[in-house]
Amino acid sequence: MTDVPLQKVIVTGAAGYIGSHVTYVLQKTRRYKVISVDNCHNSHPQVYQRLEQIARDELPPNPSAQDLDSTKIEYHNVDLTDAPAVRAVFEKYGKGGIWGVIHIAAWKAVGESTQIPLTYYHNNVSSTISLLQLMDEFDCTRIVYSSSATVYGVPPDIPIPETTRLQALSPYGNTKIMCETIIKDLCAADPKRWRGLSLRYFNPGGAHPSGLIGEDPVGKPNNLLPILAQMAVGRIEPTLHVYGNDYPGTPDGTCVRDYLHVVDLAGGHRLALDALSNDSKIFPPGTSSFYKVYNLGRGQGVSVLQMVEAMRKATGCDYKTEIVGPRKGDVPDLTADPALAEKELGFKASQSLEAMCRDLWNWQSKNANGYMK
Ligand SMILES: NC(=O)c1ccc[n+]([C@@H]2O[C@H](COP(=O)([O-])OP(=O)(O)OC[C@H]3O[C@@H](n4cnc5c(N)ncnc54)[C@H](O)[C@@H]3O)[C@@H](O)[C@H]2O)c1
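Above: inputs. Below: predicted complex with nicotinamide-adenine-dinucleotide.
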């Protein structure tokens, strides 16, 4: 059988938590060559060696030269706000040389974004504009963008469909709405060339089952799952501050989120690339703007206390909880309606909460200090 040439895809943020799992999924297809652009602001370059190891371990017997090539990651330690450095990556392949971009890199701490909004707008929005300008110049006009459920603010209905009005409550959330809007406008302005998909992630958790890659934020974690994992491994005190326990309409008064396994989430990106390769299903005849948005979630809400219990079962850690006042900007319930992504992309986050907690613990217990030994 003759090998089909690998399609070159830039993954921004490939060293990060979600980006590394997306890279894993793309390597596994053995159809894409991943070119990472990441400045490792919130990640560790060790991740690349581990990804290559997983990809080699999962190769079939007697791999072809192209199979072997797909396991290798080309990585550029580049800040996306540094346009000349990003340009050098595109120049290496020339016009039309890169098939598409999965744009994952961003800063994501909601609280921090309220303190340094300009820095967030620069890092997340200016970099996206600059990336899109380079893509346009180099005839690379397919983009999959990492958005977030945070764009919905306080949604009027649960589960949340994509048609819900957008009303983010933080500069971080606004950066997501702005980037979505810019990509949408670009696709509308130049429908012969541009194709864009925004994926609104709900709450990813877990890790690749090998335990070789996982979430390893630089500094103190901000999200519930890495906090519980680091507590269980003894990196932080096992007393969890629970922000509010009298939210209306949730099972125990604590906030509800829609957690999905990060490998399932990563699989959504492969489906998004498939949809862009053969786009008549998502853009039927008569379509005028080639841009779409999909929620990626499980469609099942889990409260903070339910998650603590699930992690207790997985880790055996005797977590203590302390109820403190609600946090400004927290929303009672963010549960996705994932029906559109299932219908049009064939996406289904099928892994259970137990699998997510088990794989998270497998990663954290094997890597107590993350990528730093
Ligand atoms: N983790 C979540 O719960 C969640 C939920 C919804 C949406 N998202 C979005 O998903 C994306 C990835 O999130 P994550 O959890 O993997 O975060 P992460 O911090 O682990 O990964 C982001 C990566 O982007 C890189 N990066 C950031 N700014 C950069 C820049 N200017 N130039 C080059 N690289 C840069 C970081 O170094 C990091 O490796 C982000 O866009 C985030 O907003 C995350």
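Residues 13, 15-19, 38-43, 79-81, 104-108, 123, 127, 146, 148, 201, 203-204, 223 surround nicotinamide-adenine-dinucleotide (CB under 6 Å).
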